[in-house]
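Good morning C.,

I know you're traveling, so I'll keep this short. The sequence:
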Amino acid sequence: MVRLAAFQPDIAANLGAMIRIAVCFGVPLDVIAPCGFPFSVKAVRRSAMDYADRAEIHHHAGWEAFRAALPGRMILATTAAAVPYWDHRFEVGDTLVMGRESAGVPAEVHAAADRRVLVPMPGAGRSLNVAVTAGILLAEAQRQRLTVLPTDQSDKLP
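The tokens, ready to paste straight into the viewer:
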């Protein structure tokens, strides 16, 4: 399926929510250091509840370590994207990268992304919570993977 990655998360509770989301969707979670809090399963166990023990978590010492371990395409969730997530064709091996709550991701990460997607927000809000966005994107990736597309329509979403 796909993977979920948290780029230098600032808030332990949001990482805990992403751990729970990853377990519920059955996907691995990559945590890219440094974090804005001391990272350990023990540190996020409170916000992740009992999900932390069931999660497949990969901790990377930094951006370069994550890039070296990336198995497929990097799909960046960003409000700066032009493509709505529902127009993106998720593939097996994609890694959905979520930025820091406080600052998103630096230009270097934007440049390295294979694709950039956004969750359109027609309301008055500036951005969604990072864990909420992760859940929306994983739900769409799962919907696409579970929907059998005719071979002549493989480049179009159902």
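Safe travels,
E.
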